[in-house]
């Protein structure tokens, strides 16, 4: 099934798929400890070591190996405070620093400790949420209350039982926003990119999606529905990938415990690096050798405890 419109009152979709700053090396007293940084950060020199792709990748890898991240199902945005928003970006060098989609637009405003490229879009094999109406876990379509920090409803509760009955505190349909978890293929209407980990789907059109970059200028790409409020995020699940440098496929990376973070080149379609290869990004991807040329994707269900 494609990334289609499941919202109440819409036509039933067809079954056919569409598509750190540098530290001082002098003998002066070191700066205060970075309490948000992972243990690996301190063990290899902390703020006294100059930021590099190798350092960041190694710290992120060790951090994940230690399994000291926050509960994957419960988190709050350190920018605005919203809890358990569908779209989440996590700093892979911090134990518990995440931002929602809106706050991630201005990463440096909310997080000055680490460079923006260290924020990873969070995904998993399942949606990692629960319906407050019936207790169903990880349903594909999720309605989130705009006013409550952590109130979500599945489609059955929202339409079958009625939102006013299930969530009387905020009984109107417009009090909720929608998100879809899907493994369907899709293509951006704006730039033609395909099957990214995050899309924004027009709620009024049967099958129109935009990538995050094009969504930032939605009025240019879809004039009929030009307000961002007309769209819902689609979080892709179960995307298969392999490292373009070492050629290791996802299943082997999982066996080697190297599949928790995927680094995608922002300029090359479907060019991804595993964490080990990203440590030597200047050699492994000479066409775009800078760390900031890559976007990280974090798989919560592949953490190694």
TrEMBL record:
Record InterPro entries: Znf_RanBP2, Znf_ZZ, Znf_ZZ_sf
Q: Which UniProt keywords apply?
A: Metal-binding, Zinc, Zinc-finger
From what superkingdom does this record's organism come?
A: Eukaryota
Stretches with biased composition (Basic and acidic residues): 8-18
Domain ZZ-type: start-end pairs: 77-103
Region (Disordered) residue ranges read 1-41
Residue ranges constituting the RanBP2-type domain according to the UniProt record:
75-94, 186-205
Molecular-function annotations in GO = zinc ion binding
Entry-linked SUPFAM superfamilies = RING/U-box
Protein name stated in the entry: Uncharacterized protein
Q: Which organism is it from?
A: Rhizoctonia solani
């Amino acid at each position: 099934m494609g990334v289609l419109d499941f919202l109440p009152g819409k036509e039933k979709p067809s079954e056919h798929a569409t598509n750190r700053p540098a530290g001082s090396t002098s003998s002066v007293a070191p700066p205060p400890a970075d309490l948000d940084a992972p243990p690996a950060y301190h063990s290899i020199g902390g703020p006294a070591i100059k930021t590099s792709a190798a350092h960041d990748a190694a710290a992120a890898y060790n951090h994940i190996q230690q399994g000291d991240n926050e509960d994957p199902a419960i988190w709050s945005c350190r920018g605005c405070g919203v809890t358990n928003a569908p779209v989440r970006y996590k700093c892979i060098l911090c134990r518990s620093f995440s931002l929602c989609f809106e706050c991630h637009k201005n990463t440096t405003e909310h997080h000055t400790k680490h460079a923006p490229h260290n924020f990873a879009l969070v995904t998993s094999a399942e949606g990692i949420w629960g319906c407050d109406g019936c207790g169903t876990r990880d349903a594909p379509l999720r309605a989130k209350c705009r006013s409550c920090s952590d109130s979500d409803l599945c489609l059955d509760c929202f339409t079958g039982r009625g939102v006013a009955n299930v969530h009387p505190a905020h009984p109107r349909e417009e009090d909720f926003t929608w998100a879809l978890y899907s493994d369907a293929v899709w293509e951006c209407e704006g730039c033609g990119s395909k099957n990214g980990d995050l899309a924004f789907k027009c709620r009024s059109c049967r099958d129109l999606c935009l990538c995050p970059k094009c969504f930032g200028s939605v009025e240019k790409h879809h004039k009929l529905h030009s307000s961002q409020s007309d769209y819902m995020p689609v979080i892709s699940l179960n995307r298969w990938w392999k490292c373009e440098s070492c050629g290791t496929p996802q299943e082997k990376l999982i066996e080697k415990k190297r599949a928790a973070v995927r680094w995608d080149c922002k300029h090359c379609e479907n060019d991804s690096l595993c964490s080990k290869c990203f440590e030597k990004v200047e050699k492994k991807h000479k066409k775009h050798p800078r760390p900031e040329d890559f976007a990280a994707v974090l798989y919560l269900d592949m953490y190694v405890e």
